[in-house]
Design a protein that fits this description.
The chain has 147 residues and is mostly helical. The protein is built from 8 helices and no strands. The chain has one domain. The termini are far apart.
């Protein structure tokens, strides 16, 4: 049993770059796509925000689109990942409150919402960082070499 644990630990330590990369590619890709969709269909997004009663929809729609596209790109690249994750979490919280909570009838409904799952991954990225396969790590390594 001890040998199996050692093997699992060895394999896991060699793959420590993988969770950050998968999380960043997933979240970044999703937000780039949704942000681009909002920017290219801004009138529809403004109308949707208006129907939800969101204040200043002409200001909020391009702001949300820009946050999703810009921060999604940063997360995908692994550049300022921890900082870029915060506005994305904020947009998901607003989406949950303004749109999705009407669909929640029990705990599992809430936990299975894509927005909640995005928040969970973003919190993980804030805590753990972008990982070793990221621009953040490349820049950090480069700064250490110069010191």
């Amino acid at each position: 049993m001890r040998k199996i644990r050692e093997i699992i630990h060895t394999v896991a330590s060699k793959l420590d770059w993988l969770p950050g990369l998968i999380s960043r590619l997933t979240i970044g890709g999703i937000f780039i796509q949704t942000g681009w969709g909002k920017i290219t269909h801004l009138d529809k997004v403004i109308n949707f925000f208006t129907s939800l009663g969101i204040p200043a929809p002409r200001l909020q729609a391009p702001l949300v689109a820009s946050v999703e596209l810009g921060c999604g790109t940063l997360v995908l690249l692994g550049l300022a990942t921890r900082i870029a994750s915060i506005p994305l979490i904020c947009t998901m919280v607003v989406a949950i409150i303004t749109v999705r909570m009407k669909e929640v009838h029990d705990y599992s409904d809430f936990l299975s919402m894509p927005e909640y799952l995005f928040i969970a991954l973003l919190v993980w990225l804030i805590v753990k960082g972008a990982g070793s396969l990221s621009v953040d790590r490349f820049l950090a390594d480069r700064c250490e070499k110069k010191s």
